Amino acid sequence: MKLHDVRQRPGVRKERKRVGRGRGSGQGKTSGRGHKGAKSRSGFRRKPGFEGGQMPLIRRIPKRGFSNYPFRKHWAEINLEQLARFSAGSTVDPAVLKEAGMVKGRFHGIVILGRGDLEVALTIRAHRFSRTAIEKIQAAGGTAEVIE
User: Fold this and answer.
1) What are phi and psi of 106, to 5 degrees?
2) Which class for 112: exposed (0-12), middle (13-18), buried (19 or more C-beta within 10 A)?
3) Which one of 21, 33, 66, 84 has the fewest CB atoms closer than 10 angstroms to its CB?
4) Per-residue pLDDT reduced to its tens digit, 93-122
């Protein structure tokens, strides 16, 4: 077998459709676009939500109420079981948590939650505390300071 004997299998390469090349091609005159209407025009783009002229669903449903979603606050959540790595008597604040890699990204504040147990006495400074977290911190001999 020589290089000039190599042939591709039939049907592997499909020829592109050449529209507007006369009646005999089967894609002449209107080039497969039909007659008139938006879809026959060049540059046609159907808008999202377009329903053929019928009033779109998004405009039919009533608009009322208010959503706080765009204005919500993002809190970095830390559980007490995660704070067990710090040595007794140390002060844990947002800078220390960031340095330890426990909080990442942008947030409005840090909230300490009460999951797990705290065995060491720590001074924890955060923006918010859950009630159980405060109880467990004080039971371990530490203090919970709220910062603004």
Assistant:
1) -100, 140
2) buried
3) 66
4) 999 999 999 999 999 999 999 999 999 999
